[in-house]
Amino acid sequence: MSTSANTGFVKNDEPVNRQTFDEVMVPVFAPASFIPVRGSGLDLWDQEGRHYLDLTGGIAVLGLGHTPREIVDALVEQANNLWHVSNYFTNEPVLRLARALTGATFAEKVFFCNSGGEANEAAFKLARKWAHDRFGEKKNRIVSCFHAFHGRTLFTVTVGGQSKYTEGFAPLPPQIDHIPFNDIAAAEAAIGDDVCAVVVEPIQGEGGILPADPEYLARLRRLCDEKNALLVFDEIQCGMGRTGKLFAYMDYDVVPDIMTSAKALGNGFPIAAMLTTTEIANSFSVGSHGTTYGGNPLAAAVACKVFETINHPDFLARVVDAGKKLRASLESVVRDYPDVFSQVRGKGLMLGLVMSEKYHGKAAEITAEAGKQGLLLLLAGYDVIRFVPALIVSDEHIRQGEKLLRQSINAWLKK
């Protein structure tokens, strides 16, 4: 193992390109060949000045699009006042944000951190601590779903039911079991007296843009009540207006005990939240959990403005309308390419274009071709093209997106 180090001075203004990534970055990502340098709304431009229509929303992060003026102004205003004070002190923006979140949801208490993985880590730790305090150390099992995604810490990646993300990292945290999503019988068999928490995404993201059946979530709620377990909703991707409701649980009439939020909460500025009730929150005490940067004034000021913008009836109504129009656009693509696609599924502006059985495993080829055509798309697994554009997506964006998508499909079919 080499211990040598390059101590030469490198100027920060030296040119960088995609090859620089391979030279200096740990290879946990495989980014595109181009490098975005400027964005506005749903528009992106790369180093060469080429334009792209971005329907990825930074993986459902940019709810208000790239560089929205009101969010930039909030960030700059806070940056001129106070950046960081540590959690030995509180600050005004984080208190305003906590009050806004608790005022608009079931929650009474909030814990702020930096990422969705950290929010879920906090949720899972709190669930085990709550059960330990009330029922003893044997009530510690967590039940989650196959094909879920809850983060990249060792704990959260184990709760997420995708073996490809845990290979090579054993031994994994114990007492974590997985059941098929939307399978009520499997839930009834798995949720016993030793379960402290049941964790579910109301709409599975990486699992293929799969909405939960209302009956499934309602049954999970009743099972948790019967077994004295906590119901945890991971709304990191499907929350913050993505489905046309402020949070997806509001459309299901099922209230969780703990909910996590991130992604669009900061519109790209790192911030996440775990929300719960006072009774459950009291299982944590001073020092039992923490974070260095969570709830810092910069992030909280940005999130306050984001939340204020999204949590408005007119804004959410437009998301519902845009979601219907995007779904209709994608369904027309399915009708015209029945050999390639089988269906459209999802809710609001979280939609998946599902590959046909004939073309299983080929979704990545279409998204790669779309990039060449100037359209940025995502995957949800190997067989679903994911559409999670900024919530401000216009009718013209949807029309242009369909045009570029059709160009991409035609170009791909000719190969």
TrEMBL record:
Its main location: cytoplasm. The keyword Amino-acid biosynthesis applies. InterPro entries: AcOrn/SuccOrn_fam, Aminotrans_3, Aminotrans_3_PPA_site, Class-III_PLP-dep_AT, PyrdxlP-dep_Trfase, PyrdxlP-dep_Trfase_major, PyrdxlP-dep_Trfase_small. Its EC number is 2.6.1.11. The keyword Nucleotidyltransferase does not apply. It comes from the Bacteria. CDD domains: OAT_like. GO terms for biological process: L-arginine biosynthetic process. Binds 1 pyridoxal phosphate per subunit. It catalyses: N(2)-acetyl-L-ornithine + 2-oxoglutarate = N-acetyl-L-glutamate 5-semialdehyde + L-glutamate. Keywords: Amino-acid biosynthesis, Aminotransferase, Arginine biosynthesis, Cytoplasm, Pyridoxal phosphate, Transferase. Pathway: Amine and polyamine biosynthesis; ectoine biosynthesis; L-ectoine from L-aspartate 4-semialdehyde: step 1/3; Amino-acid biosynthesis; L-arginine biosynthesis; N(2)-acetyl-L-ornithine from L-glutamate: step 4/4. Pfam families: Aminotran_3. N(2)-acetyl-L-ornithine binds at R152, T291. GO terms for cellular component: cytoplasm. It is found in: Cytoplasm. One of its GO terms (molecular function) is identical protein binding. Pyridoxal 5'-phosphate binds at F149, D234, E235, I236, Q237, T292. Its cofactor is pyridoxal 5'-phosphate. The modification N6-(pyridoxal phosphate)lysine is found at K263. Belongs to the class-III pyridoxal-phosphate-dependent aminotransferase family. ArgD subfamily. HAMAP family: ArgD_aminotrans_3 (MF_01107). NCBIfam families: argD (TIGR00707), PRK01278.1 (NF002325), PRK05093.1 (NF003468). May also have succinyldiaminopimelate aminotransferase activity, thus carrying out the corresponding step in lysine biosynthesis. Homodimer. This is Acetylornithine aminotransferase. It comes from Oxalobacter paraformigenes.
